[in-house]
Specification:
Largest sheet: none
Number of helices: 6
Shape: elongated
Number of strands: 0
Oligomer: single chain
Order of helices and strands: HHHHHH
Number of domains: 1
Structural class: mainly alpha
Strand content: under 5%
Length: about 160
């Protein structure tokens, strides 16, 4: 292995990459906003919101939209890499707002069946997690957070 190819194996370069900080910052801002909104509603902080699925705003959407815009700002929006990043973002946000949202609705119905079985004194399965996906509004606000963060970061990191 030559010295030139060994340079590409330097994992620490990841932490100097603007794209990494776009995605991580987008996720963090959305997760922190989600935790703060939940704390305001419930009058108590639950740090599980930093890593949970579902809720307002979508941290998945914030992450992928920040990454896509960070790539677009640095490499150009018409490049193949930016196109790939935008396709990845659209698929992720579509999945969050449709497939995972539907799975959450199915979990609600199954939990209602489980509750009814308990009332009949039967031993049902464990309760399923219902907050899996996002509404379109949650996805939109996650996207707004991600784009705003990437715009800010790429503006100050020239």
């Amino acid at each position: 292995m030559s010295a030139a190819s060994a340079i590409h194996w330097n994992v620490t370069e990841l932490f100097t990459c603007r794209w990494f900080w776009c995605g991580l910052g987008g996720w963090f801002l959305a997760a922190f906003a989600k935790m703060t909104i939940a704390a305001w509603r419930t009058h108590g902080f639950d740090f599980e919101y930093l890593v949970s699925t579902g809720g307002m705003p979508s941290s998945h959407s914030a992450t992928v939209s920040a990454l896509a815009f960070g790539i677009g700002y640095t490499e150009g929006f018409g490049t193949p890499l930016a196109t790939l990043a935008f396709a990845f973002a659209v698929i992720t946000m579509f999945d969050a707002a449709t497939v995972r949202q539907a799975a959450g609705e199915h979990a609600k119905v199954l939990n209602a069946i489980v509750r009814d079985l308990k009332e009949l004194k039967l031993k049902p399965a464990t309760r399923l997690r219902e907050l899996l996906g996002h509404t379109r509004k949650e996805v939109l606000w996650g996207m707004v957070i991600g784009i705003s963060w990437a715009t800010f970061l790429c503006w100050i990191w020239r």
